[in-house]
Amino acid sequence: RVTYIGQYEAVIALICLEKFEILNDQPITLKFENAETSKHLENEIRDFRLQSLLEEESHENFSGVFSPDSGTNSFDAVYNRLQVSGRSNERLVSNILESPQQTQNSGYDWQEWEKNAKINNNTSNADYDDVDYADQQVKISPRLDTDLNAGSSLLNKNSDKNTDMNPQPFSFNMNQPEKPAIEHGYESNNDCNFIRNNNESSLTIGHESLSIIRKDYNLSLKTIFLIQQINLQQRLGNNGVDVSFDYASSDRKDCGKLFVKTTAAHQADIADQLISLTNVIDHCGSLSKEMCQYFANNNELRDLINQKLQQKNIDAGVTYIKENISVVATDANNHDKTIALLQEQFGSDSTKLTINDSYYSKNMNEFLSIVKKSTPQSDRLWMELKLDSKPPNYILTVTGPRGLIDKAIQISKDKEKDYNTISQSINNICILKTAYLRKYLEQDILALKTKYDCQIKIETLMHDETFTPQLSKAITFECREVNKDEINHQIHEIIDRIIVEKEGYISLHSSIGRFCQHYSQSKLQDLQKAHQCMIILTDHHGHRINNKLNSAANNSKETGTAMASLKAMVREKTSTANAPIKAPSLQNDKCQRIVNNVAIKLIKGTIEKEGADCDVIVNSIRLQKYQEGNIAAALYKAGGSAYGQECSSKLQGQSVDEIGCTDGSFFGCKSVYHIAFLSSDRTPTWLGNRVKDCLNQADGQSMNSISIPVIGTGAIGLNANDVAKEMIQVVSTFAQQGAKNVQKIHFIVYPSDQNSYKAIEKALNGISMQPQMQQQSVAIDTKPDSSNKLSAKTDCQLLFRAQCNATKVPVDIHVYYGMIDDAKTDAIIDVTALCSKHASIDNHVDFNSYTDESHTLQTLQHQQLSNQGIYQVCPYGCLIGFSSLLACIYAKGDKSVAIPLLDVEMNPVIVNYLVDLIESFLKDHIQDNNSINCFDLIIGYPDRSTEIATWMQDIITNKPLQFRWNVIQQVSSQNFGLNVYYVASDKKAIGDMKSTMKAFGDTWRPYEVKQKDYFNEINPKLWHQLKLKIWSQHNTIVTSQDKSKGVTIFGHLADILKTNSDINELITICLKEEADEKVQKFAALAAQWYKTVGTSRVKLDIKLNYEIEKSYIDYCNDKTNKIFHIDSNTKIVDYEKMKIKDVANGIEYPIEKPTFPGIAIPDNWEYNNKEDIIDGYYSLVDVTNQQEIDNISKISQLCGLTIKKAQRIQNWNLYRRYQIMKAEVTESVGKYMPRAQVERYLFHGTDTKNLDAIFKKGFDRDYSGTSCGHIHGRGTYFAVNATESQKYGNELLLVRVLTGIYTKSNKSAPGISNLKIIPGSQSERVHSVVDDTNNPAIYVISNDNSAYPEYILYF
Questions:
Q1: What is the pTM of this model?
Q2: Strands, DSSP E only, in 288-371?
Q3: Cβ–Cβ contacts within 10 Å for residue 452, how many?
């Protein structure tokens, strides 16, 4: 009995039985106690080597049996009674298990085996399989290279054919039932599968020659495939060999098992056949890799090919194993025949394709699918598309039957052309239609893009192009060639749906013009969106007026929102249509002045945004560095790279003193003027000269408006006051000299630059004040004497003149820009005399819809003022009654007539109607020497006057008229008004849009202005002139229902608001001039200046005296600045030399200010020498006197606040003025209200930054409202209680205020110094206004000398 530690050593011993001596004939029992491990040993024992050995031994010694033991997981090899267990060399066992099978009948080649064993015995144990010695079990880990994958299906004869191009994996049936063999003999058995379950297996071998034997072989999958392909079993059967083949999987890589069941007599023949097949020819030969891939992807085709080979008796086949295609043959001859046959029937060809389509160039599989679908029998072809270097170049390879390849290649070429991207344009499309496409038919275009996967671009206006309806644009689309005709057709269909309707020329001030200008832009966008109708307005140059409106298409709201907004507008319209307006009057913009009809305005904002409201923007640059500086950088950022490129291109050769010009469309204006301030000497003088150049250039280029930023006061550090004076002086002089085209000048100040804003505001207020409604100032004197009059008349500007010589006396038609009351004609038509019916607030109708011709004669009134006849008529119906009006003028003997605007809807049709009426009148009086021979149309503001002049010229020169007219003076700058275009997809939308605009348009309405003391004591002539000017300027009518209660303004809302603003401006001017006069008067009393002329000392007038004194105070505060320009820059004062120079003639005069002796120094002031208290003395002194502190603390209005510290302001100049003013107020109080309190201690809250100015210069009413607004009117505000003042600043002043006689403020007129006349006085006004006359909490004074800041208090 030999005991082995490991089971595999026992197996080795069993295999090497020739080395053992057999003691008896008892069976040899081999017990496997680990099923997982035993199956590998079991398979090896089954190997034919062991079988051969056992057969040989059995013939010589005994007959034995291997039989299963059903009671345990083992099988017994009945050979001897030797119990085998032990341990041996693992590498040797591994070698045995992995040795190739021998097919010779003689069994193993032992000599070769012993040779390999000796070699393997010297092999390192590092590669041994794991052994578990603890339980004496052997664990042999199976090698991972026994995996079988695709192609093994060749072993499964009953597997279904797979029609998919991808080969399918297969699996073996390892669970077939097993019949145990009969001991000591063999029985015919159809089931040759001796493979057991995983944990047990058995093999029976007879002692004698067997009738049926079974052999299993591990063969390569390709060999097994070839055995099946050549049908070896049938061939052997045909040759009389009884054999049966079965197939199963193997644990070995690329192998399968062949189970052979045959008789012993045929065993050698079968072995010979199998040996002959072990050296098969296995490669693809000259087949291309494309053909190999083609065969690999087509199972059915391989089956057909293999059938064909069988039919031709070619011992070969095409198989797909381990993801590789192989041509397997028994010998080279059969292999060559197979390759030749395949190459004859099948082929492969390639072609280059260029696919530039943006989609298919990235999704080539989809393009390949299109080619396949278009190719007949594409299922018999294999196509592959690969990148050739880089997109869009590709290589298409087609493999398959030769008869189909060429057709497929041709089809791919056709598809290459069809699916390549081409670009095509539709030209000459009206720009109005392209604009509508972008705004409202975007979804239609998007649908085309989506449907055809194409790009459609609608050409827009270029930067250097002018928008005109005649301008044509193109639509360019990029698409596939196959879709171009259909896309072209559908785009044309969309374009043809768009309707463009031209309204004709209208005035900017017509109902449509006002609607589009003054109506809420967001609501107007909603309105257009709701009706799907676009409105485009252009001026006579073709520039789009409502540019911002139409550029907002991408931000417009959805239709639902637009309709909701439209309904809200309807409700608003319904509720307010007939209600008189009683809204509070608009406050006057103190930051605007009108100089000779040029509006100069101060605006807070940024130049890149606010500049869009003007035609020109002025920019400050450094040469060659166009984004340096705050202003230039802001424009550069807003304009983008295109703007930067234009600057680099157009400003390249600009010199320091030149004005560069670039396109302004980047910012919504026409042009940008560039001045090289950062490259200059950076002085206010240089800056003023360049601003002057910009103004002249803008005027010469027919620009209407210009925006100028405040330059140099930021990082450069120029004095804001110096810059402000220089720039305001330049624009004021420019306006006074008479601008031809420029009508608006805007100064743009950055919002946080308060110093510059105040400086510009101060300089702007220094311009000689002028109401917006006239060319020159109107001085309304409230005193009831005959001196009330307007300033000298200014001649009207003649714009157009034509003459007709067909009559006995030549007849002229003139169009003027000016005020109707400045006319020098015999007669003036006055349409401001509303009849009693239409003057009623509750009874008014739309001015334009009144058609009663007889109403003109019914309301006509004639007045003779000086040498002119005034023909007053109600404006309702005066246009259709114009012929009757001419007849009346003729009857009075007047030969020339001034005609104002007769209809607020003036347009070319109405002008043509007037010309027809004039010609009809001339025809009736053609031989009359005393007929009317001069018709002057006088319009009060520039754009409308040039509109009418242009229309008149066009009618007279181009229209068929009854008489021939000679144009003597043409319009220098034509203005045809506005072109109105409606663009929609159907006419109904246009009609609905017009109806809605008419319904929501501004209507003629009354506006009540209930403010007292506005027009008190104005004489009738002045009142009449004022009404004519207002009509000329704004087409509004002012009526005085009750002069003690104010006026009513009739007109369209936007015009009414302008008129009301002008009225407020007039009142503010009057009150300010009155207040300034008082200030100047008191300044003269406090500090009278003299100039020395020769040997005489001449007192200066109060205005000049005031300016000198005010500048002198500035000089005393900062003596480094000794030169001052005063009196509108006509005089220069040198305070160091004490001389004044007249700029005009260069003459200098010495000046002096004698010491004023009449005012006593306050007792509580602290100083070293009394002689120090002279002109200009100022000191801030801590209050240390306890009695003085106690007196301050006892003021009840401190509201419990405890004073920790107080400082006394000692300013001699301020104190003297205050005392002079106090004497004046005391006298007035004693005269009109003796019981009134003249003086009060009040509080004033302010910021720390304002203290120094207040201490040195006193309070300034021009800064009214900077902290709390001016709800109680313009002036300086004081509170009774300290806590109230603390709300408006962190510093608290205790102030002596001359409140005197006061009245309640008028909150309906904020911003106006609403001081009323003292009851019982003819001209003296109240000294202050309060919030509540019964219990005042707030006092407001309008005279700066009426308050003296005495203490600053600390708590």
A1: 0.46
A2: 316-321, 324-329, 346-354
A3: 18
